[in-house]
Amino acid sequence: MTKIDKEEYQKRLDRISTIFAEMIQHADELSTQRCPYKNRFNQCTAKFGCRNQQKTTQGELFLCVGDDKLDYRSAWETS
Predict the structure, then answer these.
(1) pLDDT digits (tens, 9 = 90+) for 11-60
(2) How far is CA 39 from the centre of its chain?
C-alpha cells in the first residue's frame, strides 16, 4: 500500500476548498437575482406552493412568472 504524502494531501484539500468556495460565492450572488427553485427553463422546482407559480400543461412543472427583481434570500434564512 502506498503511503500518503500529508503535504500533497493538504494541497489537494486546499484546492478543492478554493473551488467550492468560488462556487458558493457564485450561488450566493445568483440568489439575490433569482429564486433558487427556478430552473433554466423558467420552471418552478419547489415542492411547495408559491404565488409565482403558473399552471402549465398537465404533468409538467409550473411556470415561474416571478420578475427576478426580489431578493429571495430572506425567505430561506432562519434564525
Answers:
(1) 999 999 999 999 999 888 877 777 878 888 888 888 888 888 888 776 78
(2) 10
68-70-76-79 Cα dihedral, nearest 10 degrees: 170
Overall size of the chain counted in residues: 79
Residue linked to cell 494531501: 9
Q: Which three cell numbers stand for residue 20?
A: 467550492
Helix extents (H) in 1-79: 6-30, 73-76
> Which residues, other chains included, contact 72 with Cβ-Cβ below 8 Å and sequence gap of 6+?
31, 32, 34, 35, 36
Instruction: Compute the chain's Rg from CA coordinates.
Output: 19
